[in-house]
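User: what does the whole thing look like in 3D?
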Amino acid sequence: MADHGAAEEVVQDTWVGVIKGLPLFERRASLKTWIFRILVNRARTRGVRDGRMINFSALETPDSEPSILNDRLSANGRWVQPPTLWAEQDPEAVLLRDETADFLHEAIDQLPPAQRAVVMLRDVHGADAKEVCNILGITETNQRVSLHRARTKIRAALENHLKRR
Amino acid sequence: MLNCRDITERASAYVDAALPWRMRLQMWMHLAMCRFCRAYVRQMALVSHTLSRLPRQRSDRPVPEALVTIFRDAHRARLPGDTSQ
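Assistant: Here's the predicted 3D structure for the full assembly of 250 residues, as structure tokens:
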């Protein structure tokens, strides 16, 4: 969205759509998927109006973006600069580190739109791959590639964050 | 034989158990021998699990009055016996 105000209007508009449409809800998808689809449709309509149309599927093809790990692996595919080992072994330990939650929100905000949308729905909101394809209107391949890229970038960012003690 | 790059490219699908069993087996064989890739895959799983426990960012803005009105009206419309308004 162009700004916070536009996003709030879209959310408001979505709830109007949900309340009006609820009697017609056919349970073909979960309520959550249905609400997210209304949200994405409203956001798209608003995006067109504001000249900020985003096509989620066009942006994420398998070779649309070089891997951020290219420098860390050799030409024959072996680790040159292996992953730094983390002391933290579970989510609670990771989140207990100072400002890690804020840091992760920032890392997500910096992702390109499609990757951000997919990782938010899959990992933060717990939707499955089919639901995400359905909500965003993308293919299974787009979904997988976006999620892979998003998690790869967040892992790299977290690696830097956890290193800084 | 898969190399380390192949593992990093499939790590996200591997932690979601979204790979065909043959590929999963090949990944497993590489991981049994390569501690760097084991660390990498474990970290990818940890990223996903940590995001699922991420505290939600709460908006500090009040709920817009228009939205409150919409909810109130919808609620009243569904309570036909309520004549208190």
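In plain terms: The radius of gyration of chain A is 18 Å. The mean pLDDT of chain A is 88.
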